[in-house]
User: What shape does this take?
Amino acid sequence: MKPPANLSSDTSSLTLHKRALGDAMFSGIRTSLQPYRLAIMRGMISVTEPQVWTMIGLMGAVFFGTMTLISTMFTRVVRSEIGGLRGEMNARFDDVNGRIDNLDRDVQFLMNREINRDN
Assistant: This one.
């Protein structure tokens, strides 16, 4: 089979992509988005339109899976940090309440001492 007339005769530097279409030396790739063209590639593989859509879907699934994983991990970290802060604040409030109780006891003692002094 002869190559088309619009192909240059110097194809030694090109890698020809041969498909399993019998003895055809040149074969074309046709998709709904591209016009008819020869499958002459320079170190690249040819990909059909369904393969492209499959790769797009795979990348979308990986993207959404990664975003889900990151948001789940972020939520867990924030919850654990809030829980730790809650525990620390409760401990400090308990300490302040203890000090207020001690202050109340001391003021009560001083008031009783002054009242008893006057009697």
Notes: The longest helix spans residues 49-118. The chain is about 60% helix and 5% strand. The CA atoms of residues 102 and 108 lie 10 Å apart.
